[in-house]
Amino acid sequence: FKKMRVQQDLEEAARRAEDLAQTEEKLAEEMEPLKSEGDMPAEERQERAEDLAKEQERAAEEMEQLAKKLDEISERMEEGETAPNEAMDELADDTRDKEMPQEMKENAEQMRSEDFQKAQDQQKEMSQNLQNLQQSLQEMQEGMQGAQMQMNMAGLRRALDDVLGLSNDEELLRAEVQQ
């Protein structure tokens, strides 16, 4: 049961990472028209930058929740001695080391100060990091599913061997009784 819960958590974390990666891509795209000053009145550009900054801050909060979720998954894996807990520890540590929530908050400030090119570049980088995280989580979950299938197959083989053994014993008993 614990392994299934970990697998579900991995799936949810991968989905969240994918959603955040898409958010970052979308923000980077929406940043493009803001980079050229002549295309939009200054007040409208500032309003749009503020809207995007608020969206970036929401993404930062979601990233903080995702980082906490990764820590929870890592702890669950350790408690249940579920493989690949070392890989999960590394992934959680790596995510924490990248300080993505903080970078996202800084990115929002870059938008507010109209440093659009730097903000856009950072969003593209965060999107790539989130895609990598999502892929790693998905691979981990698939690996756990494969291991679970192998365990299930081994259990089925044992059960089948037991049934065959009982069937042989039954035939021997029947032969003895008929004599």
Given the C-alpha coordinates, what overall shape results? rod-shaped
Largest sheet composition: none
Total number of helices: 5
Radius of gyration: 26 Å
Quick check: average pLDDT? 86
Strand count: 0
Q: Helices and strands, in N-to-C order?
A: HHHHH
Low-confidence stretches: none
Strand content: under 5%
Summarize the amount of helix as a percent range.
Answer: over 70%
Could you give the distance between the termini?
50 Å
Task: Note down, in words, how this protein is organized.
This protein is mainly alpha-helical and about 180 residues long. The two termini are about 50 Å apart. The mean pLDDT is about 85. The radius of gyration is 26 Å and the shape is rod-shaped. It has 5 helices and no strands.
Keywords:
179 residues, 0% strand, rod-shaped
Note the topology.
Layout: H1 2-35, H2 42-79, H3 85-97, H4 100-112, H5 116-178
